[in-house]
Amino acid sequence: MKQFLALKASAGSGKTFALTVRYITLLLLRAKPKEILTLTFTNKAANEMSERIYHTLLHLGEDEAYLNEIAKESGISIETILLKKDALIKDYTNATLSIFTIDKFVNMILREFCGYAGVSDDFEIKEDDIESLSAKFLESLDLQSFDKLIDFQIYEKKKYSSLFDIFQNLIEKNEDIETVDVDATLITLQKKAVLDKAYKIKEFILNSPVASNSAKNAVDFDSFENLLKRGNTWLGKEFASEFSYFKKCSNELLEEFFQETKKELAIYYKIRAAYSLGKLFELYRLFKEYKKSFNISKNYLHFSDISNLVYELLSKKIDKEFLYFRLDSKFSHILIDEFQDTSLLQYRILQPLIEELLSSNEFNSFFYVGDTKQSIYRFRGGKRELFDYVSKTNPQIEVEVLNTNYRSSKNIVEFVNNSFINLPSYEYYEQHSIHQDGYVEVLEDNALLEEEKYVNIAKKISQLMQSGVNSNDIAILTYTNDDVLNIYSYLKKMFPTLKISTEMTSRLVNQENIKALINMVKYLYFKEEIYKENVNAILGKEPGSELKIDVDIKQKSVQETLYNIAKVLDIVDENIIRVIELASSYKNIVDFVYEIDKLETPIENQEQYGLQILTIFKSKGLEFHTVLLVDRIKQKNSDKSSLLFEYEGVELKNIYYKISSLENYNEEYKKALEKEKSLNYEDELNILYVALTRAKKNMVVFKKTKSSVFDLLDLKVQTLGEIVKSSNLTINHEKSEKVIYKPLNLGLQDKPMQIEDDEKEYSLYSRYFGIATHYCLEMMNEFNEDSLNKALNLTKSRFSSYLGDSDFLNIRNRVLALLENEKFLSLVSDGEYDKEQALIYKGELKIIDLLVKKDERYYIFDYKTTKEESKEHEIQVSHYKNALKDIINSSNISTYIIYLKEKESFLKEVN
């Protein structure tokens, strides 16, 4: 095994395979699981990685590819590996794993050292309340600072909200720069100096006998602002003679006046840029300090706040040894997935740990894998340049390229090769496919520019299904969430029986049925016709259509009101039910009307399977039998950010405040703009690369006839190969009956979960959920809600690396249900109890979840988080009873299994 290795893994080239092999190889070489820090970028990826390793260990020997590669990497014979299989499984399943998202790892560090950062250990993680934070910041400013902010807004013609966005951006990047305090009067004086020189040009042109009316009109200015407006066509020229209207009357004197004006303008822009940047950062530093105190007072942090605090801790307040001591683990091995998406701040946090591994003589390793061509999150801070920077600045790291594509068919791979390999200044390694055939079609779609944009997409779906492609195997990739919703709505009308799922990050309140519901509530509340017409438009009704809803919104509960309205409008679906569930947090309909638009909860998938519609960004890391790739419908929004960050490699070189025409007078700024333009171009190519590498068998590209994003690749209309049928021939694209919701329940029915036996056996997630639930109950000093809340905070601190917020809410609901169980409370009330009571019986260790002694009788309770009862559970608690019976020499024992469900709990007595 190469100790320090970086893998450039193109799409479909076996990245996850390589990571899994590396991890198991380390286990074979006697590395402990908790010492192998494995970092990914999403919870889904972290869970899949831990499950993949577990599944591979369980089936080691069945897959020759894994076994041979592990033997090769470890230098251990296949026979020896198989002999160690059971021990590896036992070590892995009993260990505390160090497989995290980077965010969770950073969060874990802060929770351990929160006292050093001045924050409470039970802080919440959530999005900033923009309205409250911005308003409170304004209130915190003294009169002098407030005046500075207002002056800056007026001078820069900026709304406060956009200024607030700049502050947030600076905090996320955690970048600062030395600024100069420029007196505003210097700008006024310099404007006058520019005008003095420019008036000489004006006088020269007006007095020239050969000057045209167009030339004279070009110098028709009487103020500095008017000069910039009139001179926007000629001030940017290098010489006066380059401006066509000045050419006839140009001579040395005019050129002299022109160059003097340019020189004074360059000074003006230098002062102006320094002034703007200085004033901005003065205000930003005030905001940064206030935000820190605001977050502490509210006991919540944004992810960017957590990263900033941890970076400060590791760089100034704690050393590595103390870090390892508090985390109860020294990381001897680091594996990082999707390294091209790492931000500079994240890398700076990890850098001390990485450098220690690279410089140590002990048994350790560093491995990272990624693909700069799939770097599409630069807008979130992803820094693809880090991939090469780390390997080049650490020569002991070897770099290998994976160039065999195991995902896509031959025609798709060759199509992608031909599209990218000849692009100038774009790093692309030709890929080879192990598969044959495949289908590629690029078609020009005029409809994408018309009102009925998606008609040809619907026709192609119909054609594919008639050609033997199952609708469950089809994915439509788009550029925006708006496109997803629009295509979804169109296809639901065209194929009413078709199952369609959407992988959305869009907010729940943006879904059509939810919009209709909210507008109907607002109509009933405000009595304004616009809301009624919004409902008509959303539901496809004629303008002016009557909407008869007899609901007293002020007398009924919010949840009942929403349900009744949705039922009359016939829009009840999973998303409506989700909103009804969330509505319990609103005290009354007034709160709902004024607060619902702030709801950040994401949209629910319409179905669990079926034809899928998702954005290219959400498709990253996924693969589909058949892909329909849709052109960018609307032109990309122009970059309206006020700051330009220029990096030299991975080091910040400069921050510029964007000013119109500054590039004509500042060469460094001009180069920075060109560099940013080049990065934006590469971003677009990377998005296309991700999109074109998701298909396994069939790919259809819908290209606009003009202004197409595919023009970047010069894609031509073409067809390669023949459509590959689905291997699953079952007709399963027909929509099943609607889910029926019971009005009184106002939620999804709690049906027994059907889980395959192998899923029960292999799910690490289920294991951690069960352990966390038991731990929460163990940490409760009393069986009441206050004790539950305290225990839950401890549980979050311990298990936040494995479970998400929704899981902890699930645990809370299950324990709350137990606390409402009258039979359980009557049995434990006034009793003496021990939790996690250990018993040694016939040489075996038995652990009783809860042992209660009351009135000379013992009660054994065993917690279960599974949804199904099992005979094995009864056998297990019977063993506990027999053990305790022999130890205390008494039969005065009752045993119960407690089934903890999310909405109820029940006790089953075992005789």
TrEMBL record:
The record's catalysed reaction(s) read:
Couples ATP hydrolysis with the unwinding of duplex DNA by translocating in the 3'-5' direction; ATP + H2O = ADP + phosphate + H(+)
Gene Ontology CC entries for this record: cytosol
* Bilayer-crossing regions: none
Query: Does this UniProt record's set of keywords contain DNA-binding?
Result: yes
Q: What is its EC number?
A: 5.6.2.4
Q: Keywords in UniProt for this one?
A: ATP-binding, DNA damage, DNA repair, DNA-binding, Exonuclease, Helicase, Hydrolase, Isomerase, Nuclease, Nucleotide-binding
Which Gene3D superfamilies does this entry report, sorted A to Z?
Answer: 3.90.320.10, P-loop containing nucleotide triphosphate hydrolases
One GO molecular-function entry = ATP binding
GO BP terms in the entry: recombinational repair
Locate the UvrD-like helicase ATP-binding domain: which residues?
A: 1-409
For this protein, the record's PANTHER family field holds: DNA 3'-5' HELICASE, UVRD / RECB / PCRA DNA HELICASE FAMILY MEMBER
Q: What is this protein called?
A: DNA 3'-5' helicase
Organism, per UniProt?
Answer: Halarcobacter ebronensis
